[in-house]
Structure formats: structure tokens, C-alpha cells
Amino acid sequence: MKFTVEREALAEAVTWVARALPSRPVIPVLAGLLLRASDDGLTLSCFDYEVSARIHIPADVGGTGSVLVPGRLLVEIIRSLPGLPVEFADDPDGVSMTCGEAAFTLATLPSGEYPALPELPQLAGMADGGVLAGAIGQVTPAASRDDTLPMLTAVSIELAGETMTLAATDRYRLAVRDLGWTPAPGAGDHGKVAVLVPSRTLADAARMMSPGVPVRIMLREGGADGGEAMIGFEAGERRLTTRLLAGEFIRYRSRFPEEFGCTADLPAEAFAEAVRRVSLVAERGTPVQLSFAPGRVTVGAATQGQARARETVPAEFTGDEPVIAFSPHYLLDGVVAATAPAAHGDAHLSDGARVRLQFTSPSKPAVITQQAGPGAGNGFRYLVVPQRVRQ
Predict the structure, then answer these.
(1) Total domain count for the chain?
(2) Is 378 domain-assigned?
(3) How far apart are CA 30 and CA 13, in angstroms?
(4) CATH number of the domain where residue 60 is located
(5) pLDDT tens for residues 138-185?
(6) Do residues 358 and 271 share a domain?
(7) What string of H, E and C letters represents the secondary structure of 20-74?
(8) Per the domain annotation, does 390 fall within a domain?
């Protein structure tokens, strides 16, 4: 085996694939990254029986073959190399890597013990990469990090006709995003489909998506044929698959109130910056308080005996409950997600965007949506539970 590949392309490829490597592999060989050189280029892949990742990049191949190398070590080495082509070749001690004057020899792992990558499930449909990545970026922050409740660490993906709905919750906030997609012919014959996808893996899948590039979504629900329930995403030369989580997601649609007694429209960027600054004086678990008055909202927080802060932001408010308080972290996640550019997964605010906060009382859940600006009405809703202000 012998091949040469551009360092930048190789660095991007190994970094993306290595994100799917298990942090604590059940057997040592699963920590490996498989390099396969063929006449049409280089394929890098990994699989731990739960998640698989594969990418194909151009390479000048002088001899075909495959080799399994320690994945995370390879990432660190490639990152450190100068911006010159990298040459790989068989070596009596494993595999050699040469880049300019730098040379490494890596001991290989037994590729015969490495599992074969899973076959892709049936095509379910396609979506624009930028729009889907943006939707994933909006909902995944709301997923739970508590592994004792696996269902809440997942994102629910519901497919109904030409609408895809993503939802995630950690019990204290709930993020929901609707987007359009194109079902494959016959894919909707079985009616509405809902699956649970691990949120971390879904976030990694978003990294392979780009605006204007179609993403193929493959799905196997499991069942009578004995195959494991699985979802796959394929965009360009990248492919990622993951096993689906078992269980049924919460019935979240009924959680959103149909009517609200109070509505506040605020400039998203100015409001978010005020919350960030004021929350600097808030201890862990201490909320920021929003106090509404004609034409403005005052954001305030305090740490008893140490510091307090407040900042006023223009606001349009109607209602008779002028005070409500939230976790600053949860509040900021909602504002940023609601007003992020609809076709990107970036965690920044759209220029000129405004956010709408609706609630009925200081003790009942509030809902955040985008009120105006680019991407308004993007199908995103964020429900968040208020906190009680300590007196």
C-alpha cells in the first residue's frame, strides 16, 4: 500500500471521522481508524457497533490496500504536520508517514478483528444540507446530558408527508423545529414515522452538511426482518450512520399553550448581550429577572452580599404580568436558536432579528420564537420553564 494525499484534505477528513470514535472502546481495536487506498482515492472510516463514519477524499495511489491505525493518535499527528503532501507506505513495523522532513511510523491494529461497516438502510428522502444543519443546531442544545434517561438525550425526528419535525427536551426546556424535505417515492406509504436519534451523533452529522448540498436520509425502523433500527445521513463524500434509541418521545405538542396573557417583542442581539452581561453576577442556579414597563425591559440579577447588575433594553410589551425570571443559560439558548440564520448551524444571531417572548404567569412555561427579520416564521419554537426569584 502506498499513497500521497494533501495535508489539508487529510486533516479535515481524519478530524471529522475521529469524532465518531468511542471514548472508551469496549475492545481496543474499535479505537482504530481504517484507511483504505483504492484506484479512485482514499477512504477513511470507523465503526464501534453503534456509530459509523466514512469519508472519501482524492489521493494519488501508488499501491492499493488497507490499514487500521490508532485513530486519535493519527489526528494529533496530522494536525501537527506542515502544509505539505503526506505520503503513506507499508513499513515492516506498521505504516510510515512522511511529510516534508517529518517522518513517523505507526504500529497498526489487527484489521481482521475490525467489524465491517453497516450497509446503508433504505432511502427515506432528501433535505437541503444547510436547512437541516440549521434545524439540528437549533434543537440539540435542549437535549438532556443525563445518561440515566436515554430517551431525553435523543432528538425526536418525525416524518409526516413533506414535513420533518425535530424536537428535544431536558424537562426544563423544549425545542421544536419544522422544516420541509422531499420523501423518497413510497417512503410515506406507512404514514407518520417517529424515531429517536442520539443528539451528539446528530450534531456530528450536521458538521458534514452544507447549504445547497442535498443530504440523503436513510432509515430502517427495525422489526420483523431482524435488522437493527438505524438512520443514516449521506452528503457528498461523507456518510454517517447510527443505531436508533428505543422508546417513545414525550407528547410535546400539547405542552405549548394555545393562548398567552403577555407578549414581549425585543431586539434579539441587544437583549442577548444584556442577559450575558447581567448574568455575570448571578451564582450558579440564580436566574435573571425580566421586568417589563412601557417601551422597555430591565434585565437584572444579583448575588447576595457580592454584586448586582441590571440593564435596560427597548421592548414592546402587552400584558398584566410584568415580571418573569429564567435561567440565563436556558434563556440565551432560546434567543440564539430562535434567531440564528435558518440555513446554517451557526450559533449567532441574524442581523436585525427580533425575538418574541410569550407567557401567561411567572410560574408557567413561556415560549420564544422569532418575531421579525430574515428567517422569521422558520418553524422554530422554544418552550422554557421560568424560575422563582429568591427574595
Answers:
(1) 3
(2) yes
(3) 18
(4) 3.10.150.10
(5) 999 999 998 888 899 999 999 999 999 999 999 999 999 999 999 999
(6) yes
(7) CCCCCCCCHHHHEEEEEEECCEEEEEEECCCEEEEEEECCEEEECEEEEEEHHHH
(8) no
* Structure-block grid coordinates of residue 386: 421560568
Q: Give φ, ψ of 189 to 5 degrees.
A: -65, -25
Residues 286 and 189 in one domain: no
Q: In what order do the strands lie in the sheet with 230-235?
A: 65-70, 32-38, 41-47, 51-57, 238-243, 230-235, 214-220, 122-128, 182-183
Range of 355's domain? Answer: 256-384
Rounded to 10 deg, the angle between the 328-339 and 268-278 helix axes is 160
Q: Which of 260, 298, 297, 303 is nearest to 280 (CA)?
A: 303
225 domain residue, yes or no: yes
Pairwise CA distance, residues 278 & 159, whole Å: 41
pTM: 0.90
How would you list the strands of the sheet with 94-99, edge to edge?
Answer: 60-63, 2-5, 86-91, 94-99, 102-106
Q: What residues pair up with 384 in beta bridges, in sequence order?
A: 173, 366
Is residue 173 packed enough to be buried (19+ CB in 10 Å), middle (13-18) or exposed (0-12)?
buried
CB 29 within 8 A of CB 14: no
Q: What HEC string does 380-391 produce?
A: EEEEECCCCCCC
Residue 289 grid cell: 429577572
